[in-house]
Amino acid sequence: MQRIEQINWHTLIVGLGKTGLSVARHLSTQGVAFAVMDTREVPPSSDTLAEEFPEVPRYFGGFDADVMCEAKRLVVSPGIPLATPEIEKARSLGIEVVGDVELFAREAKAPIIAVTGSNGKTTVVTLLDLMAKQAGVKVATGGNIGMPALELLDQADTELYVLELSSFQLETTFSLNCKASCILNITEDHLDRYSGRMDLYATAKAKIYDHCDYKIVNRDDPLVVTAAGDKDIITFGVGVPNQGEYGLADNEGRTWLVKGKQPLICKDDLKVAGQHNEINGLAVLAMAEVAGIPLSPCLEVLREFTGLEHRTQWIAEYNGINWFNDSKGTNVGATVAAMTGLTGKTVLLAGGQGKGADFTPLADVVRQYARAVVLFGEDAEVIALSLKGDIPIVFARNMVDAVTQAKDLAQIGDNVLLSPACASFDMFDNYEQRGNVFVETVKRVVLC
Question: Is 322 an active-site residue?
Answer without folding.
Answer: no
